[in-house]
Amino acid sequence: MVGLHSVVRWLVLLAAVGGLIGYARALGSSGFDAVAERLGSIYAAAIGIELLIGIVVWLIQGRWDGDDVFRSFIHPVMMIAATGVASVAVARARRTRNAIVGLIGVAASLVLVILAIPSGTWPL
What pLDDT digit, counting tens, does each position of 85-105 carry? Predict the structure, then answer.
């Protein structure tokens, strides 16, 4: 299950880049359109799926024991926050047809995701 969580994280990061590109494109002459809406929705869905997989990993591995405070508490809380920020921003951008709301929300969510990645799992 941890392997699936590790693979899906790359899809989440790819979807985040897509969402950023979609909303940034919508700020230009094209305006808010179905492409921006779809790319934002893909990111919100991807991060939601990743959160569900992460919760299963957290429960199965008993990560709440506090042996590693970052993985036990900080990582899960920040990822829940990142998912909430992404979901609210994408929904609000869709409802108001405002690309800047989506762009800022996806960017903020992505910052939370990057800050919450455990340092030992960085590929570099």
Answer: 999 999 999 999 999 999 999
